[in-house]
Q: What sequence folds into this?
């Protein structure tokens, strides 16, 4: 069988399996990254309040999760938290089926890891905004939610985006770890195809190209987003 | 009131669960496999798991009147996954070892192939005379066998040997040839890639993967040969079996009976003939405590 046939989309080719794996990788990465940003915002907020009951747990969390291998966090959640996830799965009506909780555990793990990194990004970004702006806004009688939405968030994103792009790349690559849970994403399908056909070089090369394609495209997207949020500034300084 | 309705809900749920259990005549069993280890278990491009173990599982489940489903997941997380009840049994070319027996129970072995040495044809190590053509059973050590093993150790002294991590072959090398330089690989594929590139001199592995490897290399006009003795027993384990959680004695005994039957009536022999080209059945069938 020629190489083209092996990668074809028809019967006998691995194309559609690889495509499905790529879609799963993207889905986990996007969901994990978005919920990770939510986690990160909350953690950053908790640390910035300065209240010991909020700031300390957040500090411990970001330190621990960033300090241990991602695979360890995943094992802990997937094998240690198996009972918990099955319980949640049963309540949600999945009947504890193993694919459902592999998906849930996968996204949760990615979100928790990604959140620990983005928390630091958001904390830095918020601190980069001069506190005088918030004070001025309050003096004008702007409410807190408006203050956040209209003044802090646009600037925060400008400061945070370059580093968030970095976190996104880390998150995208971390999805490869999910393959230990049995969820069939790009890494796992590559592994299966490489083993089953005994042609590891071909399939691992394809996976490299796909991962590079994904990171390349997302780099472009982040660059555009950065330009969008920098539109009110000249050469990185307020206009 | 609220509490009452909740109890009512629970009761009807229990009744429903009971009904659905009764309507399913066959007990459902989830078998875990790796899906990338031909010819035992591998995946076709449509995503279906095939191989010797899939065929055999079909036979065993039919005999045990079970309805079996496959769960594929990487070998790494399999034993923790079993103990976390993500599936009910492992059937993934899992060798019986004492270490593994501490955390899981094994069925009777359904496959046992010899362990062999392989290297590039014409290499210095492939010309080794020690143990040539013999089958050494490591269960009972005789003086003769010890002498042969000592000769083998001497011949291997200058070689670098590749084995797969956490495999019986790795334990075997450690226990019998602690002096020999061993390189440990996470994956079978990288092990053989390094043998082809000459980074290691030889590989210790099972009969079937070695045969596969040699055939594939032949297609690319590279010659690799099996040399030295064939080994079995002892550190090399008692064979390949299904793995069960420790508290699942009933399920394990169902499979034990089916394996004994399939071994005795020649089903295992014909399936191993079909997939591997030799009789890999483990005889005599012993009792599993």
A:
């Amino acid at each position: 069988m020629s190489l083209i046939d092996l990668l074809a989309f028809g019967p006998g080719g691995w194309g559609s399996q690889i495509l499905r794996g790529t879609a799963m990788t993207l889905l986990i990465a996007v969901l994990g990254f978005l919920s990770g940003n939510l986690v990160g915002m909350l953690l950053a907020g908790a640390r910035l309040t300065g209240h010991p009951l909020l700031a300390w747990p957040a500090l411990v969390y970001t330190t621990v999760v960033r300090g241990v291998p991602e695979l360890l966090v995943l094992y802990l959640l997937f094998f240690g938290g198996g009972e918990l996830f099955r319980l949640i799965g049963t309540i949600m009506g999945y009947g504890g089926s193993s694919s459902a909780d592999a998906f849930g555990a996968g996204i949760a793990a990615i979100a928790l890891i990604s959140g620990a990194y983005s928390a630091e990004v958001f904390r830095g970004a918020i601190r980069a905004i001069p506190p005088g702006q918030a004070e001025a806004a309050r003096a004008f009688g702007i409410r807190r939610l408006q203050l956040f939405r209209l003044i802090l968030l646009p600037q925060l994103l400008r400061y945070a985006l370059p580093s968030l792009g970095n976190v996104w790349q880390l998150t995208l690559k971390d999805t490869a770890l999910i393959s230990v849970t049995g969820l069939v994403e790009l890494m796992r399908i590559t592994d299966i195809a490489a083993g089953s056909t005994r042609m590891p070089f071909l399939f691992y090369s394809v996976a490299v190209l796909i991962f590079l394609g994904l990171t390349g495209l997302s780099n472009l997207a982040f660059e555009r987003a950065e330009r969008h949020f920098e539109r009110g500034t000249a050469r990185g300084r307020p206009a | 009131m609220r509490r009452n309705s909740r109890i009512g809900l629970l009761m009807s749920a229990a009744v429903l669960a009971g009904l659905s259990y009764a309507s399913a005549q066959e007990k459902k069993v989830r078998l875990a496999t790796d899906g990338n280890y031909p010819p035992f278990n591998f995946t076709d491009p449509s995503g279906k798991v095939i191989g010797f173990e899939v065929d055999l599982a079909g036979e065993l489940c039919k005999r045990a009147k079970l309805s079996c489903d496959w769960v594929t997941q990487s070998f790494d997380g399999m034993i923790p996954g079993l103990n976390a009840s993500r599936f009910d049994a492992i059937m993934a070319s899992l060798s019986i070892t004492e270490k593994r027996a501490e955390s899981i129970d094994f069925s009777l072995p359904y496959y046992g192939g010899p362990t062999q040495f392989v290297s590039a044809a014409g290499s210095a190590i492939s010309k080794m005379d020690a143990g040539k053509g013999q089958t050494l059973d490591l269960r009972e050590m005789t003086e003769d066998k010890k002498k042969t093993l000592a000769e083998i150790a001497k011949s291997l002294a200058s070689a670098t040997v590749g084995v797969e991590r956490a495999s019986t072959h790795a334990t075997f090398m450690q226990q019998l040839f602690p002096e020999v330089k061993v390189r440990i690989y996470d994956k079978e594929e990288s092990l053989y890639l390094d043998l082809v590139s000459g980074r290691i001199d030889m590989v210790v592995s099972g009969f079937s993967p070695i045969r596969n490897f040699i055939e594939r290399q032949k297609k690319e006009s590279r010659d690799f040969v099996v040399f030295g003795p064939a080994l079995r027993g002892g550190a090399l384990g008692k064979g390949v079996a299904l793995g069960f959680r420790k508290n699942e004695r009933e399920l394990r005994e169902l499979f034990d009976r089916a394996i004994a039957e399939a071994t005795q009536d020649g089903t295992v022999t014909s399936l191993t003939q079909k997939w591997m080209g030799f009789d890999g059945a483990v005889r005599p069938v012993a009792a599993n405590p």
Chain A has one domain: 3-228.
